[in-house]
Amino acid sequence: MVVIRDISARVHKEQELDYQQNLLKSLYELSPIGIALNDFDTGAFLDVNQTLLEPTGYSKAEFLDLSYWDVPPPEYQPAEENAIKSMQATGSYGPFQKEYIRKDGSRYPVELRGIFVEDMRGNRLIWSYIQDISEQKRAEQALKEERERLANIIRGTNVGTWEWNVQTGETVFNERWAEMVGYSLADLAPVSINTWLQFVHPDDLAVSNQRLEQHFTGEIAYYEFEGRMRHRNGNWIWVLDRGRVASWTEDGKPLMVLGTHQDITERKQAEAEMLRAKETAEAASQAKSEFLANMSHEIRTPLNAIIGFSDLLRTTELNATQQQYLDNVVQSGTSLLEIISDILDFSKIEAGMLELEVIPVNLHELLQNCVNTISYAARNKGLPVELAIAPEVPVHVLTDPVRLKQILINLLSNAVKFTETGEVELSAAPTAGGRIRFAVRDTGIGISSEQQKKLFHAFSQADSSTTRKFGGTGLGLIISDMIARKLDSKIKLDSTPGQGTVFYLDLELEADPNPPVSSSADTTAEQPEADNTDLEELAPVPTHSVSPPDETRAISAFTTDHATAGRRMRILIAEDASMNMLLITTLLRQMNPEYEIIEAYNGQQALELATSRPVDLIFMDVQMPVLDGVQATTAIREHEKQSGQRVPIVALTAGALKEEQERCLQAGMDDFLTKPLDKSRLKTMLDTYGVTHQSVQPYRKDRFLERCGGDEDFARTMLDHFMADLPNKLEELKQSIGAGDLAEAGRQAHRIGGVAANMEMPLLAAAAGRLERQAAGREGDVLSAFDEVQQEWHAIRLLLGDSL
């Protein structure tokens, strides 16, 4: 009998079981984690996969000879026993970490976890999952070392750190952060963002919040803030708080911000000390300035009388002995004045108070003036002084003419002083580096190399015998060198003892971007029959634009008020020193006995006299009782705003420190006369402001004819050209004003004024000068000034008609 049964289902199940077993075996062998099967009771390894074997160095057969207790080092056995007990109670163990011993005896870290099972035969087994965590441990160690390194760096920098979760407010501080405010972290626990808020100064919190917001919105790359935090002992410390967003939320909001706190209290205290020291130094510098001004005033005032009255005495009849005595007095007074000036200059430079005034300059004219200044002393020694200017040297440049002239005259003076025979030469020529070299050459005694080392030290000369023979403080050259350094140069020299010396300096001079244009060029270009004769060459009248503080000087101050006609010119002198009052009064009356001189011995008297009667010119001493010169000038200018009249005021100053000049200009003074008074300078000042014994004439025929060398035909030609051309110039000026082009109007007025001055038409020149300043925005109304120019032109046309 045959029995046939359908075993398809069983076969299918067996196949499924085989598949599952093969799958499990594959997963078991290919698992990236080591898997082991141990006998629970004996610990023997029953099976392991290849992943577990790889780091051990054992073959599978060798490893299966080992037990659970053989692979870890002995020190792990207590922990293993506890794990076994735990597994009996819970059915599993781990995860926990320990080490395995390789076949070569080395160790490596593993992490284990396992489960307890019983098979169908009742055998108790352990399935363990064992992962080689060597890479993880190396990474953890590297991270640990990096953190320790950073921690050491932070400890070394004494910086506190903070971490802030912007979204939750959770905050982490390090110990140093707490120490800065006098606490430990334990004292502050639990910490949060409120911990920061309770310590920061309320006045500084808004700034901190603003900086954070700017950082969050990307306006600034880092959050940075200096603020105060309250210390445990009650005082405030300063901290520099810096931070940066380290991570953002998915919707773009700041999440974690990491930052540091640095205690900058000492730095802030140092800054405060520096500020106090700076203020103290500035106060000391101001005190020094005031002392210098006062000292200058106190010394120069009597010197003014000594030198001034000595000059007056020279004009009287004296015998030869008296004349010699008087010359000695003047020479000694002048020498003392030079010494005082040197000391004041040296003190100003040493204190950093010397300021340069870079303005347009006619360089060729300046060099000629330097030679002219020294020529008298050279002529007395029979020395020619030559001037050599290379053709490439520009005429119109920008520099400080006063200081450049001071340097060159000092070098020329020394050259003349130390030269007995031969010559002295001042030269200017371009260098290969694009600068201008100014050189003073002499054929004097020369300077040895040893003596040269002492030249640029204060209060020293080449040797003591030089001082005994030639005199001087030894300050002149060092002052010149200090000024040269302010001009971005330095003085150098080449010298051979017994043959002579060359002192030189190289200056980088910028060309004047708006050089003065010859006024007559416009006239003669249109009328070739004039033979291209330049009106501005008739006399040495400056044609360049006058700049502050000279802006109210020169022909611009000629008065257009004809009320002086029929009375003498009235000059008010405000001077508290009776000797100086007598001196300046005497000098003025020598120049013109017709002057009506009014005396005021303090600023209050000067104010009352100047505002109670017409005055044509005021000489105002700066330092006076009751009201000083600055206060009196300010009050006079205020009064003039109501009267509509403006009188020129010239400061009489014993020091002329820059600060004092600025105060005088701000008060409304127009010019300066420095004591001791120089007669020629005083005369120039009178001419500048049109103060004569009679009213100013619109056209001074005799002076113009004198300018033309007495050639009446040439003078008539020049006048005809002027009379024919000026209406066109006035029309162009009117159009520029109407178009609002005040810059061009100023240039046109400048040209008209320059030509009018050379034509000896002072009132027209003055009106044009005022228009030029008003076009530059410095004073008054441009249209009114243009009306004045037209009025003066009309007066000249009525006066001259068609004749000379």
TrEMBL record:
One Pfam family of this chain: PAS_3
EC annotation from Swiss-Prot or TrEMBL: 2.7.13.3
GO cellular component labels: plasma membrane
GO molecular function annotation: ATP binding; phosphorelay sensor kinase activity
Membrane topology: Multi-pass membrane protein
Stretches assigned to the PAS domain: 146-219
Superkingdom to which the source organism belongs: Bacteria
Domain Histidine kinase stretches: 294-511
Domain Response regulatory: 570-690
Phosphohistidine modified-residue sites: 750
Chain intervals for the UniProt region annotation (Disordered): 513-553
Major localisation: membrane
Identification of the protein by name: histidine kinase
Source organism of the structure: Spirochaeta africana (strain ATCC 700263 / DSM 8902 / Z-7692)
Lineage: Bacteria, Pseudomonadati, Spirochaetota, Spirochaetia, Spirochaetales
